[in-house]
Specification:
Blueprint lengths: L1 H8 L2 H22 L8 E9 L11 E7 L5 E7 L5 E7 L6 E8 L2 E7 L8 E5 L2 E2 L5 E14 L4 E12 L4 E2 L12 E4 L5 E7 L6 E4 L2 E4 L6 E12 L5 E7 L3 E9 L4 E4 L3 E8 L2 E11 L3 E8 L6 H10 L1 H29 L21 H20 L5 H21 L1
Parallel strand pairs: 1-7, 8-11, 9-18
Antiparallel strand pairs: 1-4, 2-3, 2-5, 5-6, 9-10, 10-16, 12-15, 13-16, 14-15, 17-22, 18-21, 19-22, 20-21
Helix pairs in contact: 1-2, 4-5, 5-6
Amino acid sequence: MIRALSHLFSTGFGLRLALALVGLSLAVVLLVAAPAQGEGGTTVTGRVVNVTSGADAPADLEVTLHIFGTGGEVDTTSVITDGDGRFHFEDVEAMDDSIYAVTASYHEVLYSTRLDPHSLEEPVELLVYESTSSIDDIVVNADVLLLRGLDGEERSLVAFEVVSLANAGDRTFVPDLSQPAMMNFMRFSLPSGATGLEVRSDLPGGDVVSVGTGFALTAPVTPGSHEVTYSFRLPYQGSRLEYDRSFPMGAGTFRLLVEQGLGDVQVSSLEPMPPTDFEGRSHRVWGASELDPGTRIGIEITDLPQPGLLSRLGDALNDGPYLKIGIPAVVGAVLVAILGYALFFRGAEGAPAMAGGPGEVAQVAGASSAPLERRSLVEAIARLDDLYQRGEMAQGQYERRRSGLKSRLLQIALES
């Protein structure tokens, strides 16, 4: 037997068999040492901690584990905390390409914390707070307003604003919108006529609500630092813009950045500061510190970009005074010239004199009824102008109907 084994090992086959036996032995050792797959994953343990001074850890609170897969799928599991706020999730599979988070709703405010998929076995702390409707602990640390030229053809600027705020207390501020007169919500200023408002923040939930000359956020504000950013378009008339900037919540510091070459800037209560580059563009800078709630700052920009000649002509024709007075006068003059031209040449051809009352144009037998239709159109335009000037017709309806009448007048003139 020994001689047979010695013969096997002396050949290539024996050597391969020996290596296979060694590999099998190592595999058995590893399988015994490692936990069996499919018989359970990691246990995620943690505790809900109430950070508000003097408050107890919430018991019997529902806590949910969310697992977000790369394909968009979401797996959720919920448990209830014990008397000390502790919780645990069994058999949680660790996947490197997934996102893990634990959430809980306390006093109707959602709190969350994100987990590291490589450290699921480490204890989790989910911080919650008692709530308050008092805004006294909300402070604006810094406010930066940046103005840039957008489109001279449209006479508008684009504004970006970044507000860094903080809840300096140990309770979550929850806006009370049931009593708007108390102003217990975060308010942000907007200039008159601003359009295209877009708001982003790191605050969970909530809505953007129009309030007076600005907007408010209804999102809860947890203790700590937060950031609200928003942008809007700011139209201007002519070459001048006035912006009365208010600070409903005050500000620790305020910085105004205006793109170089945008225009001549005049500001009140702000000190000039060294220019700065932002996104490859140079900006002039003004600043102020320790602004109390309700502070107002005047911003005036002149020599703003202007549209081209054709655009300015179109604006002039569509502007209110020109639309109400200038266009009717021009159309009236054109119509008088057309009627005079027609009467002159028809009189030279032996057309009969006026056959009706004053202001009526006599018609030649078999002749076109264009003069009568022109008169009717002119009278209809005059009535429209009168209704619009008295505020009895919407501008859109007025412009559409007037455009139709003018088109018919032009058609008649071309056919004459």
